[in-house]
Write a structure and sequence with these properties.
350 residues; alpha+beta; Rossmann fold; Dna Ligase, domain 1; D-amino Acid Aminotransferase, Chain A, domain 1; four-stranded parallel sheet; 11 helices; binds adenosine monophosphate
Length: 350
């Protein structure tokens, strides 16, 4: 158990790091943010900030010397950067990151544990794509195996002709059959250093243009019926990785049961409602887990909860958001509102 006063290193400087740092501060720990970008909304609420590249070995060693534990808030941190931190300080470890960074590796890993992803095929060239469409059918989605997030690096393919007309951005792609889902949900769990696992309730997620728009509770009955099976898979993933911290798996609820979409070895946007809506938030429990502290209760405290992302320009500003007295407003302090950029979120309770 790491005592208060110690410093947590966080690789990545975005809003997830910001909310981890805020939870750490509440428990008496300080944070040291490490990110290559000069603007960091996590650094704004943290004691220290190192702005350096992922390949800067010296800066990573300095971070490790300053910190009792080092975590990450972003799954595209290069594995080599995390490997530059002594293994005893890393939480979660690099295996989860390696798997989650490649959609193909991730799907194979989950299948080995009994999970069921959408039908998929690896695509490196036009011939592979034609073969994949012939085998899996259309419509489908072509995705980059690496570095995609918030719907980036994805192309919808309506027909074989569509596929033939597409100019591939390069090798390293995956074609997935389009899943006719009734709803989307995520399973978010925390696993402690001692192996204790706790789950939050699964919210119903709605995406727009590949970006999460809302997460709400209670979820539709079809989700409630499929959560137990989805949790079993998430539990097996956490065990297989000897995972420490918060882990997220996203699912499609279909007429044939839960279909695995993807995993994130970190706190997740669909769990932001836990800040006000659960006894212990995903951020606080992540901090507790990586420090070896007892985990907090994950129970939901309100019968109805709705989390809405604030994406791009915020219409009416903070005044309008706060004019509804039930709104809990979180603004991330980003300087520029661009289309598709997550600027904050609002959680409404009750
Ligand atoms: P992803 O980045 O892969 O999580 O994709 C973002 C969103 O796009 C998902 O949450 C779904 O709403 C949609 N999507 C992605 N892949 C599929 C698929 N194979 N079938 C149907 N919808 C999908």
């Amino acid at each position: 158990m790491i005592q208060p006063g110690a410093t947590i290193g966080i690789l990545g400087g975005g809003q997830l790091g910001r909310m981890i740092a805020m939870a750490a501060a509440q428990l008496g720990y300080s944070s040291h943010i490490y990110a290559p970008e000069e603007e960091s909304v996590a650094a704004e609420v943290s004691a220290r900030f190192t702005c350096a590249g992922w390949d800067d070995r010296e800066a990573l060693s300095t971070l490790a010397r300053d910190c009792a534990v080092v975590t990450y808030e972003f799954e595209n941190v290069p594995v080599e950067a995390v490997n530059a931190i002594p293994a005893s300080l890393r939480a979660p470890g690099t295996r989860a990151l390696e798997i989650a960074q490649d959609r193909l590796t991730e799907k194979r890993f989950v299948e080995e544990l009994g999970g069921r992803p959408a039908p998929y095929a690896s695509v490196d060239n036009e011939a592979d794509l034609a073969e994949a469409i012939a085998k899996i059918g259309a419509p489908g989605i072509l995705k980059t195996r690496r570095d995609g997030y918030d719907g980036k690096g994805q192309w919808r393919i309506a027909s074989a002709q569509d596929g033939a007309a597409l100019r591939l951005p390069g090798p390293g792609l995956i074609y997935e059959g389009f899943v006719r889902f009734e709803a989307e949900f995520s399973v978010i769990l925390v696993r402690g250093l001692d192996g204790e696992v706790r789950f939050w309730d699964s919210a119903q997620n709605v995406h727009e243009n590949g970006i999460l728009a809302t997460s709400s509770l209670p979820a539709a009955p079809i989700i409630a019926e499929q959560v137990a099976e989805a949790r079993k898979l998430a539990y097996r993933v956490a065990e297989a990785l000897a995972y420490v911290g918060v882990l997220t798996l996203e699912f499609f609820a279909t007429a044939d049961g839960p279909v695995f979409n993807e995993m994130a070895p970190r706190v997740h946007n669909s769990g932001h409602w836990t800040i006000e809506g659960a006894v212990t938030s995903q951020f606080e429990n992540h901090v507790r887990a990586i420090l070896g502290l007892p985990l907090g209760d994950t129970s939901t405290m309100w019968p109805k909860i709705g989390m809405t992302n604030l994406i791009g320009e915020i219409e009416g500003g903070i005044g309008k958001l706060l004019s509804d007295t039930r709104n809990h407003v979180h603004l991330y302090g980003k300087s520029e509102a661009r289309p598709g950029r997550k600027m904050g979120h609002v959680t409404k309770l009750g």
